[in-house]
Specification:
The complex is a heterotrimer. Chain A is an all-alpha fold. Chain A is about 80% helix and about 0% strand. In chain A, helix 5 runs antiparallel to helix 11 and helix 7 runs parallel beside helix 11. The chains are: A mainly alpha, B mainly beta, C mainly beta.
Chain lengths: ~425, ~120, ~170
C-alpha cells in the first residue's frame, strides 16, 4: 500500500509525466481512489485525496466524493466516540450515586447527571425509582421503630408496676399466713384449758357420787347452775364456722368463759352460804374460776391476733369486717340459773358438758383456722405465679425496648430529608 | 371449832371491800339489768367499768344490782379477825353501810352491809 | 417531865398548885389538854380511808389489833391538814364514849403549868380559839389549853348534819 502522503508528494513529477502517462495516470489515479476507499473501509477515515492531483475530471470528482465520504465517516466516528464517552460518564455517575447510597445512606437528593443523553434516561429513571422506594422504606421503618420504642416503654412501665404490686400482695398474704399460724397455736391453748376444765369436772363428778348424801342437799340450788349451762349450750350452738367470723367465735368463747366464771362465782356463793357443808364445792368452784380466767386471757391474745389478721388481710384487699355480736343472754342466763341450783350431780355433769363443748368449739375453730391457712397457702402460690409472670413480662418488655432502640439507631443512618 | 364468817370480796374502783355472803343473792352481768334496778354510785364511790353486778335485796324489798368492777372471790374469816367500826367513826360517817373491818395481813379491809348500801341511794 | 413541886408550895386545900397537861405541837403552836385524857402515844400506821367520812377524819389505822380513828384538828378548824408521815405521832385519847388518835406535828408529852399562870382564852372564837379553855405558859413558852371533850363532841355534831349516820 502506498502512503497517501506519498501521493501528495512529488508535485514536480505531476507535470512532467502527466501527458505521458495520461492513460497510465488514469489507472494510477483510479488505483489511488480504490486505495483510499479501501482505507476508509478499513476504518482509516482520516484518509484524504487531493482532488487537484487528479487530472481526469471524472476521477477528480470521484476523489472529491471520496474525501467527502471520508470526512463524513470521520465525523460520524467522532460523534459516536463522543456519545460513547458521554454515556460511559453518565453510567459512571449513576454507579457512584448508587455507591453513595449504599455506603453513606444519603437518599436525600435526586440523581442528576452532568451529561444528558437519551440513552441514559431509562437508567436515570430506574435509579430514581429505586431511591424513592428506598426513601419510603426507610421512612416507614423509622416510624415503626419510634412507635415500637414508645409501646415497649409503656409495656415496660406497666410490667414493672405489676411486678411491684404483685410483690406487695405476695408479702401481705405471707404475713396473713404467718399470723394465721399463730392463731392456730393460741386456739390450741384454749382447747387445752377447756380440756382441763372438763377433766376437773370429771374428777369432781366421781368424788361427788361417793359423797352423794351430803351433795344431795344442794340439788335444789344446783338447778340454777343447770339452767345456766343449758343456756350456755344455746350460746355455743350459735357459733359460725366461717373465717370472717372467727372474731365472733372468739367473742362467744369469751362469753362462755365469762359465763363459766359467773357459774363458778355463784356456785361458790351458794357454797359459802351453806358454810361448812359447801366447803368442797367452793374449792372446785374456785378452781373453775381460775381456769375460766385462763381461757379469757387466751381469748384476749387471740383477739389481738385477730386484729392483726384483719389489718393484714385488708392490706391484701380482703375485707374482714367482723361483726361483734353481743351475746343476747345477759344476766338472765346467770341470774335465772342461780336462783334455784338443784342437783349438784347434774350441775357438775352440765359443767363437764359445757367444758366439752368449749373444747369442741375450739376444735371447730381450729379446723376453720386450718382451712384459712390452707386457703392462704393457695393464694400465696397463685400470687407467686403472678409474680413470676410479671417478672417475665418485665424482662420481655425491657428486651423489646432494647431492640426498638437498636432498630432506631440503624435506621438513623439513612438521611431522607 | 371457832366461829367463822363467809365473806364475799369485791372491788369497786380502786378499793376492795368485803360483805357477808348472806347479803348477796347472786352474781351476774350488768348488761340486761333494767336501769332502775342498777346501783352504780354508792358511798363506796363509782366503779371504773360495769363488769359485774351483785344482786342484793334492799331494805324495801325487790332487787337491786350493785355494779362492781370485779368479784374477787370468797374468804372464810375467823370471828376474832372481825373488828367493829370505832364508835367515833360510826358517829361521824354519813353512811351506815360500813359496818366494820376484817383484819387481813394487819390491814383493815372494809366490811359493808350490802342491803344497807344499795338502799342508801346517792 | 417537870420536877415535882416542893411541898411548901402545896395549897392547904389539898389541890396542887400545878396542873398537869399533855402537850402537842400542832398548827405551828403548843397545844395541851388534860393529861388524864391520854392513854397512850402511838405511831400512826398506814391509814385506811373511810367512805362518807368528814375531812377531819382522814381514816383509821390498826394499833395492836385495834382499829382507831384519826382526828385531824387542823382540818377541823379549817387550817389545813396535819401532814401524816410514817413518823407521825398521835395521842390516844378517851373523851367520854369516844376513843380517837389526835395527830400532831410532834408530841412533847406531860407538862405542868402553874395554875396561877392559866388565864381565860382570848375573846375571838374563830378557828381553834373556839375550843380553848385557857392559855398559859410554862418554862418553854406559851401553851394553849384545849377543851378536848368539847372539841371532839363538836366535831361529831358537825359531821352528820342530816342525821341517819349513827347506828
Amino acid at each position: 500500500m502506498r502512503d497517501p502522503r506519498e501521493l501528495q508528494e512529488k508535485p514536480a513529477r505531476r507535470g512532467a509525466a502527466a501527458a505521458k502517462k495520461r492513460g497510465g495516470a488514469v489507472k494510477g489515479d483510479a488505483a489511488r481512489i480504490v486505495a483510499a476507499l479501501r482505507a476508509v473501509a478499513e476504518g482509516k477515515s482520516e484518509v484524504r485525496l487531493d482532488p487537484a492531483s487528479f487530472s481526469d475530471p471524472a476521477l477528480r470528482a470521484i476523489a472529491t466524493a471520496v474525501n467527502g465520504a471520508a470526512v463524513r465517516a470521520t465525523g460520524d466516528l467522532h460523534d459516536a466516540q463522543a456519545r460513547i464517552q458521554l454515556v460511559t460518564a453518565g453510567v459512571d455517575e449513576a454507579i457512584e450515586a448508587m455507591i453513595r447510597l449504599v455506603i453513606q445512606g444519603d437518599l436525600s437528593g435526586t440523581l442528576r447527571l452532568g451529561v444528558s443523553d437519551a440513552a441514559l434516561t431509562p437508567l436515570i429513571g430506574g435509579i430514581g425509582q429505586v431511591m424513592e422506594t428506598l426513601k419510603k422504606f426507610v421512612t416507614e421503618i423509622r416510624e415503626a421503630a419510634l412507635q415500637l420504642s414508645t409501646s415497649s416503654s409503656e409495656v415496660l412501665a406497666a410490667a414493672t408496676q405489676n411486678e411491684s404490686s404483685t410483690s406487695a400482695q405476695a408479702s401481705a398474704i405471707h404475713e396473713t399466713t404467718a399470723t394465721m399460724e399463730e392463731l392456730k397455736g393460741a386456739s390450741h391453748q384454749i382447747a387445752e384449758n377447756a380440756q382441763m376444765v372438763a377433766a376437773i369436772a370429771e374428777q369432781t363428778l366421781t368424788g361427788a357420787r361417793t359423797g352423794e348424801g351430803a351433795i344431795k342437799a344442794f340439788m335444789g340450788s344446783m338447778e340454777k347452775v343447770r339452767h345456766n349451762a343449758v343456756e350456755v349450750d344455746d350460746a355455743i350452738a350459735k357459733l359460725s364456722k366461717r373465717v370472717e367470723r372467727i372474731g365472733t367465735v372468739v367473742e362467744v368463747i369469751d362469753e362462755i368463759a365469762d359465763r363459766s366464771d359467773l357459774l363458778a362465782l355463784n356456785a361458790a356463793l351458794e357454797g359459802a352460804k351453806a358454810g361448812e357443808a359447801g366447803r368442797g364445792f367452793s374449792i372446785v368452784a374456785a378452781e373453775m374460776r381460775r381456769l375460766a380466767e385462763n381461757v379469757m386471757e387466751s381469748t384476749k391474745e387471740i383477739k389481738n391476733l385477730i386484729t392483726e389478721i384483719r389489718e393484714a388481710t385488708h392490706a391484701a384487699k380482703e375485707a374482714s369486717d367482723g361483726n361483734k355480736r353481743e351475746a343476747s343472754e345477759g344476766e338472765k342466763l346467770g341470774g335465772n340459773a342461780m336462783t334455784s341450783v338443784t342437783g349438784i350431780l347434774s350441775g357438775i355433769q352440765e359443767t363437764s358438758d359445757a367444758a366439752r363443748v368449749i373444747h369442741l368449739a375450739t376444735q371447730q375453730q381450729r379446723t376453720a383456722t386450718e382451712q384459712v391457712v390452707q386457703s392462704m397457702s393457695e393464694i400465696e402460690e397463685v400470687t407467686r405465679q403472678a409474680q413470676a409472670g410479671s417478672k417475665q413480662a418485665t424482662g420481655a418488655a425491657s428486651e423489646l425496648t432494647r431492640l426498638a432502640e437498636r432498630l432506631a439507631e440503624l435506621v438513623k443512618r439513612f438521611k431522607v430529608e | 371449832m371457832t366461829a367463822t364468817s363467809e365473806l364475799l370480796l369485791f372491788q369497786v374502783g380502786a378499793r376492795v371491800f368485803g360483805a357477808a355472803v348472806r347479803g348477796a343473792v347472786r352474781i351476774g352481768n350488768v348488761r340486761d339489768v333494767p336501769a332502775e334496778e342498777l346501783v352504780v354510785m354508792t358511798t363506796l364511790g363509782p366503779p371504773f367499768e360495769r363488769e359485774r353486778g351483785i344482786v342484793v335485796v334492799p331494805t324495801g324489798g325487790g332487787e337491786r344490782t350493785l355494779v362492781v368492777d370485779r368479784v374477787l372471790g370468797f374468804r372464810t374469816v375467823e370471828e376474832e379477825e372481825l373488828r367493829p367500826l370505832p364508835a367515833f367513826a360510826q358517829a361521824c360517817l354519813s353512811s351506815s353501810a360500813v359496818t366494820g373491818f376484817v383484819l387481813m395481813d394487819d390491814a383493815p379491809l372494809l366490811l359493808v352491809d350490802l342491803p344497807t348500801l344499795v338502799s342508801e341511794r346517792q | 417531865m417537870a420536877d415535882p413541886q416542893p411541898p411548901e408550895q402545896r395549897d392547904p386545900s389539898g389541890a396542887s398548885a400545878e396542873a398537869w397537861f399533855f402537850c402537842l405541837r400542832l398548827l405551828g403552836g403548843r397545844y395541851a389538854f388534860e393529861a388524864p385524857l391520854v392513854t397512850e402515844v402511838v405511831r400512826v400506821g398506814p391509814l385506811t380511808r373511810l367512805p362518807a367520812a368528814p375531812s377531819f377524819l382522814p381514816g383509821v389505822f390498826t394499833h395492836r389489833g385495834e382499829v382507831l380513828p384519826v382526828l385531824d384538828i387542823g382540818q377541823l378548824v379549817g387550817q389545813g391538814p396535819v401532814p401524816i408521815r410514817p413518823s407521825t405521832r398521835a395521842a390516844l385519847v378517851h373523851c367520854g364514849p369516844w376513843k380517837v388518835a389526835v395527830v400532831s406535828e410532834s408530841v412533847e408529852g406531860l407538862v405542868s403549868i402553874p395554875r396561877r399562870q392559866l388565864e381565860p382564852p382570848p375573846a375571838e372564837s374563830s378557828g381553834v380559839a373556839e375550843f380553848l379553855s385557857a392559855v398559859g405558859r410554862d418554862r418553854s413558852g406559851p401553851i394553849a389549853v384545849l377543851d378536848l371533850p368539847r372539841l371532839v363532841e363538836s366535831a361529831r355534831a358537825r359531821a352528820v348534819p342530816a342525821g341517819g349516820g349513827a347506828a
